[in-house]
Amino acid sequence: MYVSEGVRNRPLRSARLIHTVSGIRWLEDRHRDVSPGLMERAGAAAADRALHLARANGRVLVACGPGNNGGDGFVVSRLLLQRGVQVQTLFTGDESRLPADAAEALHALRAAGGETSVDFGADSAASLSLIVDGLFGIGLQRPLEGRHAELIERLNAIDAPKLALDIPSGLDAGTGRILGCAFRATETITFIGLKPGLLTLDGPDCCGDIGVADLGIAGTESPGCGQVLSPAMFAAELRPRLANTHKGSFGDAVIIGGARGMIGAALLAGRAAMHVGAGRVFVGLIDATVPAIDPVQPELMVRSAASLAQAPAALAVGPGLGRSTEAMTALRQAMQGRSPLVLDADALNLIAEDAALAELLRSREAPAVMTPHPAEAARLLGIGTDEVQADRVAAALALAERYRCPALVKGAGSVVALDDGQWTINTSGHAGMASAGMGDALSGIVTGLIAQGWAPARALPAAVHLHGAAADLLATEGDGPIGLTASETIIAARRVFNSWIATSGARLPQ
């Protein structure tokens, strides 16, 4: 039942579905009559992982809370006891108020000779071989405080492997927000399927390695579910090139941006479009005083922004654009044209400030995509950045619906939403990508794919995953995560993209 690659935050293909909390409840209701019950199955899967993670010849501490997550913990304790493991079970709830399944699991634990305690001694912490967190599960909505917050901080401070059941206590399963404080797991075994909070915002910092115990409900969709991004989703686009082609076969990409002091942003985007295979790349600069050549990438054709704003090509508007009159004019002209658009950075800020531009985006017939970071997404939605971060999936879906185009919300666990309600979370990439120019490189990758004929709704998620995979490749080779640059990821993206195409007839990475 349990699946895991053993790679930090990289779920397997069999665990690609991501369920909302309401979706998980829907699945639970539909499968309550399975035998043995879901709690028993969850506890059995978790006990197997506990045996795998626990250090030799030490005690296992299982912390159980007042709800069904605590019930999962009681099952783990019982099964470990029955396998000869020395177990201490903490119970922080009120036995009289336990849900029926959890109360039954506690009774079964005691019938097997297990006992519960309300605390553990600090002097015994050094002998722990594993800590199992079954305090709070996916139903938690309020910030943890008082004795529960204190207990979690004490558990976090202990030097022992840590296994979270379903989700680390204190982490919002729907959003990835830390509610007051959160358990910091070495590994999280989540039940039935993935939840958004495991993969985005604070989730990657709290969950450790993620595994899924599907409890016999593998691959079942739930209302409003999403998916983990993988190359398999756009495998149909990954075709080797024919020999009888020329540069015109792979389209033109145009980057509009590069105001004074920000020319590098537009050039980075242009280089990225070229390195993922666009046939020709033009860079239209707002700052007309600079030399009409990129000395690092002389293959780029540098022009004025005004001359390229309505070019019949895949257009990206925003990298280093600024908010000048010239920038506004170029953006408006591009939006009035019929070319597919990638909108980023100051293009998004200008749209957020101008109702006419926003309506122009909503009503245009040619496709567009937008790639905001959380602050830009907040401006586009007219809310605070903290509100975007509080529910990144909802924010991405709201952007896609409001502006009628695929939308990305960047960050840890970037979220891509389509205007038909589909959404995905990307798990490639790492914290080394928090450096200048990364967003410009991403805009160029998206534009380069669209130039080659990719539908924007496929190019956006593909580019997001490719960009992160390039950074992952560099990190495995010792180039990062710290000190990684956007320019390096552009070159690595070419390598990863070619490797995907080379293996497109075989099984792609999931």
Describe this structure in words.
This protein has about 500 residues and is of the alpha/beta class. It has two domains: about 1-230, 3-Layer(aba) Sandwich (Rossmann fold); about 245-425 and about 435-500, UDP-N-acetylmuramoyl-L-alanine:D-glutamate ligase (3-Layer(aba) Sandwich), CATH 3.40.1190. Helix content is about 40%, strand content about 15%. The chain contains 18 helices and 19 strands. It has helices at about 20-30, 40-55, 70-80, 100-110, 145-155, 195-200, 205, 265-275, 305-310, 325-335, 345-355, 355-365, 375-380, 385-390, 390-405, 440-450, 455-475, 485-500, and strands spanning about 1-5, 15-20, 60-65, 85-90, 115, 130-135, 160-165, 185-190, 210-215, 225-230, 250-255, 280-285, 300-305, 315, 340-345, 370, 405-410, 415, 425. Strands 1-9-8-7-6-3-4-5 form an eight-stranded mixed β-sheet, with helices on one face. Strands 13-12-11-14-15-16 form a six-stranded parallel β-sheet, with helices on both faces.
